[in-house]
């Protein structure tokens, strides 16, 4: 079996040898053999393990990648594959959601969302449930001046109008694409004035990013399947 030094693999994958050792310390790869002089050396199996980690990291969050590699190391291959496929499903759901909200923006008569008839005013919990976000996120966006609530005269609780819910939906869809508060405020102002061109461009960028992430995830899965095949030999 072909063997490699840490420097050879590090150079090929454009990472440091420290990074390779960290993956080893995190228990992400098979046990690493050593020479008689106690130097590490890697086999083709390790090379594929490192390649898989780097490929998965381009499309998946770090905790997911680490869990997938640990599952694979312990021969729990089906669980590893289910985990990466589950993440792909979440991206597909988010993509569908962004497309739905883009359609919603263009609908002047915004009285329904996902076939749910909207009330004139909603509590923060109701708004969070409809938008699929935490109430803490809505409070943060209000603190930043992106949205505004009114207070229920009877109990003092926050109440959000349909127009504010529309903004909450937009923010929740674009928060990974529009990075700066001032830029988001500008987009929301365009929404208020029904100047939809810039808002739509931002949504198209969000959809493009999701599509790119799906492609990167598929490439990572391809390397994972190669790694699993190596492990099963």
Automatic annotation (TrEMBL):
Keyword annotations: DNA-binding, Repressor, Transcription, Transcription regulation
Keyword field contains Transcription regulation: yes
Pfam families: MerR, MerR_1
Domain HTH merR-type: 3-56, 121-190
PROSITE patterns according to UniProt: HTH_MERR_1, HTH_MERR_2
Molecular function via GO: DNA binding; DNA-binding transcription factor activity
InterPro entries, per the entry: DNA-bd_dom_put_sf, MerR-type_HTH_dom, MerR_fam
PANTHER family xrefs: MERR-FAMILY TRANSCRIPTIONAL REGULATOR, REDOX-CYCLING DRUG-SENSING TRANSCRIPTIONAL ACTIVATOR SOXR
Protein name (record): MerR family transcriptional regulator
Organism from which the protein derives: Paenibacillus ihbetae
């Amino acid at each position: 079996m072909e063997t490699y030094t840490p420097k050879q693999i590090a150079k090929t994958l454009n990472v440091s040898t420290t990074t390779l050792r960290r993956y080893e310390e995190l228990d992400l790869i098979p046990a690493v053999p050593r020479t008689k002089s106690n130097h590490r050396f890697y086999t083709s199996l390790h090379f594929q393990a490192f390649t898989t980690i780097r490929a998965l990291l381009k499309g998946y969050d770090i905790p997911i990648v680490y869990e997938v590699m640990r599952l694979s190391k312990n021969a729990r291959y089906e669980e590893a594959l289910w985990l990466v496929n589950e993440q792909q499903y979440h991206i597909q759901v988010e993509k569908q959601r962004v497309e739905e909200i883009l359609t919603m923006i263009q609908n002047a008569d915004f009285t329904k969302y996902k076939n749910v008839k909207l009330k004139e005013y909603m509590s923060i919990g109701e708004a969070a449930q409809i938008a699929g976000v935490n109430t803490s996120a809505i409070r943060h966006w209000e603190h930043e001046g992106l949205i505004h609530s009114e207070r229920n005269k009877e109990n003092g609780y926050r109440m959000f109008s349909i127009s504010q819910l529309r903004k909450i939906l937009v923010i929740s869809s674009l928060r990974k694409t529009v990075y700066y508060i001032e830029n988001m405020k500008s987009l929301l102002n365009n929404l208020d004035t029904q100047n939809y061109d810039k808002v739509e461009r931002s949504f198209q960028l969000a959809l493009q990013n999701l599509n790119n992430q799906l492609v990167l995830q598929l490439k990572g899965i391809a390397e994972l399947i190669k790694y699993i095949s190596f492990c099963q030999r």
